Recover the amino acids of this structure.
Protein backbone atom coordinates (compact mmCIF):
# COMPACT_ATOMS: atom_id res chain seq x y z
CA UNK A 1 0.00 0.00 0.00
CA UNK A 2 2.90 2.35 0.62
CA UNK A 3 4.33 1.82 -2.89
CA UNK A 4 4.57 4.64 -5.39
CA UNK A 5 2.66 3.71 -8.49
CA UNK A 6 3.34 5.54 -11.73
CA UNK A 7 1.74 5.07 -15.12
CA UNK A 8 3.58 3.16 -17.78
CA UNK A 9 4.12 4.64 -21.23
CA UNK A 10 1.52 2.26 -22.58
CA UNK A 11 -1.09 3.42 -20.03
CA UNK A 12 -0.37 7.11 -20.76
CA UNK A 13 -0.65 6.47 -24.51
CA UNK A 14 -3.95 4.61 -24.01
CA UNK A 15 -5.36 7.50 -21.94
CA UNK A 16 -4.31 10.05 -24.58
CA UNK A 17 -5.79 7.99 -27.41
CA UNK A 18 -9.03 7.44 -25.50
CA UNK A 19 -9.34 11.15 -24.65
CA UNK A 20 -8.63 12.18 -28.25
CA UNK A 21 -11.20 9.73 -29.62
CA UNK A 22 -13.80 10.88 -27.09
CA UNK A 23 -13.28 14.53 -28.07
CA UNK A 24 -13.46 13.71 -31.79
CA UNK A 25 -16.63 11.63 -31.38
CA UNK A 26 -18.25 14.35 -29.27
CA UNK A 27 -17.35 17.08 -31.73
CA UNK A 28 -18.51 14.98 -34.69
CA UNK A 29 -21.81 14.23 -32.96
CA UNK A 30 -22.33 17.90 -32.18
CA UNK A 31 -21.68 18.90 -35.80
CA UNK A 32 -23.97 16.16 -37.12
CA UNK A 33 -26.73 17.32 -34.76
CA UNK A 34 -26.30 20.91 -35.91
CA UNK A 35 -26.61 19.87 -39.56
CA UNK A 36 -29.67 17.74 -38.84
CA UNK A 37 -31.29 20.67 -37.04
CA UNK A 38 -30.63 22.92 -40.01
CA UNK A 39 -27.81 24.94 -38.45
CA UNK A 40 -24.30 25.39 -39.63
CA UNK A 41 -24.91 25.57 -43.34
CA UNK A 42 -26.89 28.01 -45.38
CA UNK A 43 -28.76 31.02 -44.14
CA UNK A 44 -30.72 31.03 -40.92
CA UNK A 45 -34.22 32.37 -41.32
CA UNK A 46 -35.67 34.69 -38.71
CA UNK A 47 -39.35 34.59 -37.87
CA UNK A 48 -41.38 37.22 -39.63
CA UNK A 49 -42.19 40.17 -37.44
CA UNK A 50 -45.85 40.70 -36.86
CA UNK A 51 -48.72 39.45 -34.82
CA UNK A 52 -49.56 35.77 -34.96
CA UNK A 53 -53.09 34.61 -34.41
CA UNK A 54 -53.81 32.71 -31.21
CA UNK A 55 -55.61 29.44 -31.82
CA UNK A 56 -58.35 29.09 -29.19
CA UNK A 57 -59.22 25.59 -30.35
CA UNK A 58 -55.66 24.36 -29.88
CA UNK A 59 -55.45 26.01 -26.45
CA UNK A 60 -58.73 24.39 -25.42
CA UNK A 61 -57.67 20.97 -26.68
CA UNK A 62 -54.34 21.04 -24.86
CA UNK A 63 -55.40 22.70 -21.60
CA UNK A 64 -59.15 22.31 -21.00
CA UNK A 65 -60.72 19.44 -22.93
CA UNK A 66 -59.22 16.77 -20.68
CA UNK A 67 -61.45 17.90 -17.80
CA UNK A 68 -64.26 19.83 -19.46
CA UNK A 69 -64.83 17.52 -22.47
CA UNK A 70 -64.02 17.98 -26.13
CA UNK A 71 -67.15 20.08 -26.66
CA UNK A 72 -67.06 21.75 -23.20
CA UNK A 73 -69.95 19.45 -22.23
CA UNK A 74 -68.38 18.56 -18.89
CA UNK A 75 -66.48 15.60 -17.55
CA UNK A 76 -64.21 15.78 -14.54
CA UNK A 77 -64.89 19.50 -14.60
CA UNK A 78 -68.29 21.12 -15.20
CA UNK A 79 -69.85 21.99 -18.54
CA UNK A 80 -68.73 25.43 -19.67
CA UNK A 81 -72.01 26.67 -21.15
CA UNK A 82 -72.42 29.18 -18.31
CA UNK A 83 -69.21 31.03 -19.17
CA UNK A 84 -70.55 31.99 -22.58
CA UNK A 85 -72.37 34.91 -20.96
CA UNK A 86 -69.47 36.03 -18.77
CA UNK A 87 -67.45 39.12 -19.61
CA UNK A 88 -63.87 38.30 -20.60
CA UNK A 89 -62.62 39.74 -17.28
CA UNK A 90 -64.72 37.20 -15.32
CA UNK A 91 -63.63 34.37 -17.61
CA UNK A 92 -60.01 35.42 -17.19
CA UNK A 93 -60.34 35.55 -13.40
CA UNK A 94 -61.81 32.05 -13.34
CA UNK A 95 -59.25 30.61 -15.71
CA UNK A 96 -56.20 32.39 -14.36
CA UNK A 97 -56.95 32.52 -10.62
CA UNK A 98 -59.75 29.99 -9.95
CA UNK A 99 -62.27 32.69 -9.00
CA UNK A 100 -65.78 32.64 -10.50
CA UNK A 101 -67.85 35.85 -10.69
CA UNK A 102 -68.74 37.04 -7.20
CA UNK A 103 -65.42 35.74 -5.83
CA UNK A 104 -66.55 32.12 -5.49
CA UNK A 105 -63.59 29.73 -5.42
CA UNK A 106 -63.61 27.08 -8.13
CA UNK A 107 -62.88 23.45 -7.29
CA UNK A 108 -59.31 22.78 -6.09
CA UNK A 109 -58.61 20.60 -9.15
CA UNK A 110 -59.05 23.62 -11.44
CA UNK A 111 -55.54 24.76 -12.38
CA UNK A 112 -54.75 28.40 -11.79
CA UNK A 113 -53.30 29.08 -15.22
CA UNK A 114 -51.67 32.32 -14.06
CA UNK A 115 -49.37 30.08 -12.00
CA UNK A 116 -49.02 26.99 -14.18
CA UNK A 117 -49.16 28.70 -17.57
CA UNK A 118 -50.76 27.70 -20.85
CA UNK A 119 -48.66 25.22 -22.78
CA UNK A 120 -45.68 25.98 -20.56
CA UNK A 121 -45.71 29.77 -20.89
CA UNK A 122 -47.43 32.57 -18.96
CA UNK A 123 -50.90 33.23 -20.45
CA UNK A 124 -51.46 36.35 -22.51
CA UNK A 125 -54.62 38.45 -22.79
CA UNK A 126 -54.93 37.32 -26.41
CA UNK A 127 -54.91 33.66 -25.33
CA UNK A 128 -57.61 34.25 -22.72
CA UNK A 129 -59.79 36.04 -25.28
CA UNK A 130 -59.20 33.39 -27.96
CA UNK A 131 -60.02 30.61 -25.52
CA UNK A 132 -63.29 32.21 -24.44
CA UNK A 133 -64.22 32.99 -28.05
CA UNK A 134 -63.67 29.34 -28.98
CA UNK A 135 -65.75 28.09 -26.02
CA UNK A 136 -68.56 30.50 -26.94
CA UNK A 137 -68.85 28.99 -30.40
CA UNK A 138 -69.09 25.39 -29.12
Amino acid sequence: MGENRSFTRREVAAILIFTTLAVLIGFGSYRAGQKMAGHGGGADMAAAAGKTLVNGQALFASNCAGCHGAQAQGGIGPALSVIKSWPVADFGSAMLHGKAPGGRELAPVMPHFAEVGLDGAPPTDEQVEALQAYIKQL
In short: The chain has a mean pLDDT of 86. The radius of gyration is 28 Å. Residues 1-42 form one domain.
